[in-house]
Amino acid sequence: MNLPGSPYFAYRQDDLHVENLPLSGIAAQFGTPCYVYSRAALTENLREFQAALAAYPLGADSLVCYAVKANPNLAILNLFARLGAGFDIVSGGELQRALAAGADAGKVVFSGVGKSVVEMEQALNAGILCFNVESAAELERLNAVAGRLGKRAPVSLRVNPDVDPKTHPYISTGLKSAKFGVPIADAPALYERAAHLPNLAVVGVDCHIGSQLLDPAPFSEAVDRLLVLLDHLAARGIAIRHLDLGGGLGIRYQQDETPPEVAAYLTPLLDKLQGRGELKIILEPGRRLVGNAGLLLTRVEYLKPGATKNFAIIDAAMNDLMRPALYAAWHEIVEVARKNIPAARYDVVGPVCESGDFFGQERPLAIADGDLLAVLSAGAYGMAMSSNYNTRPRAAEVLVDGDKAHLIRRRESIADLYAHEQRIPTDPI
Ligand code: LLP
Predict the structure, then answer these.
(1) What is the CATH code for 9-38+291-417?
(2) Ligand 1 mutation pick, 110, 284, 296, 320, max ligand atoms within 8 A of CB
(3) Which contacts (CB < 8 Å, 24+ apart) does range 254-258 have?
(4) How do the domains of the chain map onto residue ranges?
(5) What is the pLDDT of residues 24-36, one digit of tens each?
(6) What spacing in Å lies between the alpha carbon of 229 and ligand 1's midpoint?
(7) What CATH number was assigned to the domain covering residues 39-287?
(8) Is 65 a catalytic residue?
(9) Which residue's alpha carbon is nearest to atom 7 within ligand 1?
């Protein structure tokens, strides 16, 4: 079977491997549930974007800013930083994490609708590349904070181009009705305002229209609209140094999905930008860099045959990977060891006390109690969105590099989970 993930996750004989290591060995060494990533896949995914940008005449100055929210593990951030990536952050926490991982602050862009004063101060003091400002009120606040610190804040406005990205409503952000960005019709006036505020330096135009996009057309439509804005600003003497096109390029979760190749998505966009002098491009991919570079390794606790359905109850749950519960997202689920036993259809579910705690329904699997399963394409928004619901320690994370497995986050202990809690004094009740 052709797995929908990366070529670095493949069967050798009947055993699923990550690069050169069998997943059965990783489960034995680190336990389950466990997120497993491939260094080669991560590297290749980033390089694909960097190569597509380098083919553009001004590519050398252009920047891939990995969207930290997709998977913020320090080892992954460090790997990307060493490969020359910048970072797209949405909180002071992500800034601190990126810096701790070795990021260059001068390659960090700060997105998000609710930046606090403290987060602005932190980012100004670090000397980030750009604030992607999402409202008129944020412009004024940033100007005031920068003034107090005696600094000038570099800004882009996140412009909402009002295009339909045709993805799940929870992850589509570019429509007029979204809370994100400023309407494109309001952008000229806001840019005039920004250009007159003494502690701001207008440097860019930014947009992000949604996530898991499989059709390149909405990107192209967004660029067309942004270019009209750029021309309008140039005519008013507002020079734009960079255009940030956000993230959003989708990955293949199911066999029949055909996301565009990185170059096929980018080249037409870059073509539209030819002849625009010194304009530099910034991209903020998250999912496309890490999604297919990771899987969730889990063990079957029980098989529970039923009158109308069979259940495979596994040791991972919605707290480990909430995408199926939250977005009805599909993740391919495969056996780690292919055996010659009859297959049956199972609802693959976790131990959490909610009916929404499922990974897949009616999945054909040839399994027995105690077998290992892999939930594929789980590298993005998997561990990042995990929780401790039901007092379940979060999974371990392992990064495979050839024939070496590195533990990049140890499994939490139960004591970790209540370490920040305390009882009230023991007065008589
Ligand atoms: N830039 C901004 C401003 C964003 O809001 C996002 C994602 C990205 C970049 C990266 O988008 P990507 O390349 O990963 O599509 N939890 C959801 C996805 C939420 C995406 C939020 N914003 C999921 O599991 O599908």
Answers:
(1) 2.40.37.10
(2) 284
(3) 254/4, 254/330, 254/332, 255/2, 255/4, 255/332, 257/4, 257/214, 258/214
(4) 9-38+291-417, 39-287
(5) 999 999 999 999 9
(6) 24
(7) 3.20.20.10
(8) no
(9) 211
